[in-house]
Amino acid sequence: MSLSGALFAGVGGLDALSTAISVVGDNIANVNTTGFKSRRTEFTDVLGQSLATAGGISQTGAGSAVGRVSTIYSQGTFETTSRPTDLAIDGRGFFVLEGSLGRTYTRAGLFNFDRDGYLVNPSGARVQGYGIDPLTGQSNGVLGDLQLNNAPLPPNPTANVGMSLNLNSSSTEIPGGFDPSSPSTSSSFQTSVQVFDSLGVPHNMTVYFTKISTTPPDHNWTWTATLDPADTTTPPATAGDPVVVQSSGTLTFDDTGVLTLVDGAATGQTSVTLQFAGGAAPGQVATLDFGVVAGVGTGAPTTSNGGASAVASFTQDGYAAGTLRNVQIDELGFLTGQFSNGEVQALGQVALSIFPNVDGLQTVGNNTLIESRASGQPIIGEPRTGSLGSIRASALEQSNVDLANEFVRLIVNQRAFQANTRTISTTNDLLGSLVQLGQ
To answer: Fewer C-beta neighbours within 10 Å, C or N terminus of the chain?
Structure first.
């Protein structure tokens, strides 16, 4: 190689090392940038010339060049915050955003709700996710903007009442059966459950249980669902009755206290028709479930044994109207709203994406990236499906920059840069000597 070639080799080294020092400086500058992934400079040698000699081909170099600057996508540490919309990804994946640059991707979960209820990043790009199927409460698979609807949660009329209890088999029989004019003395046990009409107004439905016969191997009880006279449009059987009957039926137990029939059928379910007052929808039908009968059904069974009469559990699915009070996000990305009426409902699900080649993504600033031909098409899905990671709420992923490593790189690159300047200065001295030969 000529002396001029040595000069250019030194210049090539200076250019490559300048880029390396710039990359290190960028890493150090972003040591506190949320979700930042450090980069490294990868060098390649430059072929100068090939010389044919008697011993074969000899080659000389012409310095170095930057092959590429690659991104290191290792997991950053997590910082716990007090904001529920601060999100971090534990594992692989990127959040999906839609904004002025179109669709972008990020690891920085600095999100909050804007004035229109959209979940956005600091630049205003909207976080993408899935809507919720109202029947299943699960993702509907339709990707779109995540937005909170601040409208009140509408009331839900009671459609199902579950009740599990024990009726004391030693209770005295009441041959005349239940009498709404004297409910306490004509029943063996009673319990109340709060139910809701179509307007979301709560009512106390009292269910009376009356033992009517013991005929081995079975014994029978009646159940009677009642409302207060002020709560129903149904007129009382007799003026002045303290309760008004809405529906009634029978419960049959075998000689071991196991419930075998409900209203003459081998099922734990029956129906109650409720005529609420106050302008509610008439004839509201609710399923009354006494639990497992003959191995069919769910929940704890209703029994009749020698123990005291008592309710083990009861449930009902109605509720009044409510307003949104709080929002939480779980590890599956479900955005859940907590309402003033005690209801908890899924409102959306955060989506994540992965790429066949993450090294092919292009940075566009503001902690965001865009896809390219090199990265391949994104695969978008729900957290914790496939190879996608999970969501950490009230947490942020910190930069994965290792300061100690960056300072070592800085020193190495600095010394290499100085060495290349010596190559240039030495070559310059030699060229000066050649010029003096002609004087």
So the answer is: C
| Domains of the chain (ranges, CATH numbers) | 3-74+400-437 (no CATH), 78-149+324-397 (no CATH), 160-316 (2.60.98.20)
Within 10 angstroms of residue 135's Cβ, the number of other Cβ atoms is: 7
Strand partners, 112: 120
CB 253 within 8 A of CB 219: yes
In the predicted model, is pLDDT for residue 415 greater than 80? Answer: yes
Phi, psi of 196 (to 5 degrees): -120, 140
Dist CA 315 CA 121 (whole Å): 41
Cβ atoms of 190 and 209 within 8 Å: the answer is yes
Q: Are 41 and 20 in contact (CB under 8 A)?
A: yes
To the nearest 10°, report the CA torsion of 172, 175, 176, 180: 30
- Residue linked to tokens 């083990």: 312
Closest by CA position to 203, among listed 233, 184, 227, 183: 227
The tens digit of pLDDT for each residue in 166-218 reads 999 999 999 889 999 999 999 999 999 999 999 999 999 999 999 998 777 77
248 CB neighbour count, 10 Å cutoff: 18
Question: Is pLDDT at 1 greater than 60 in this prediction?
Answer: no
Question: Looking at the DSSP assignment, which residues form a beta bridge with residue 162?
Answer: 289, 315
pLDDT tens across 238-296, in order? 999 999 999 999 999 998 899 999 998 888 899 999 999 999 999 999 999 999 887 77
Query: Tokens 């955003």 identify what position?
Result: 97
* Residues comprising the chain, all counted: 439
Query: Which is it for strands 139-145 and 160-166: parallel, antiparallel or unpaired?
Result: unpaired
The pTM is what? 0.77
Nearest by Cα to 210 from 231, 182, 232, 234: 182
